[in-house]
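Backbone-to-sequence.
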């Protein structure tokens, strides 16, 4: 498994799939999730990691809107998985 595949697998397990597979998630949140997944996939591993931390910090503007949608609908946000992400990315 490549580093990019490892990062995407973790993000899908922790963030993307629970939203995309949920009957309760709004279509707006699912659409934003598909977009976030696509933006991650367009990057190499180092840029994926940088983009993850930008999502945690809340930059760019769309990430703060996405975070509010996630929180408002009761789904895990990037900052909630930051510690596990840090450990996983540090060990590889």
């Amino acid at each position: 498994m490549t580093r990019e595949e490892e990062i995407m697998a973790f993000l899908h397990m922790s963030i993307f799939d629970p939203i995309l597979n949920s009957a309760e998630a709004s279509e707006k949140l699912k659409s934003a999730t598909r977009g976030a997944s696509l933006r991650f996939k367009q990057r190499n591993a180092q840029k994926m990691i940088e983009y993850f931390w930008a999502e945690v910090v809340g930059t760019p503007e769309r990430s703060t809107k996405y975070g509010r949608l996630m929180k408002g609908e009761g789904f895990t946000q990037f900052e909630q998985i930051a510690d596990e992400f840090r450990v996983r990315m540090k060990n590889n």
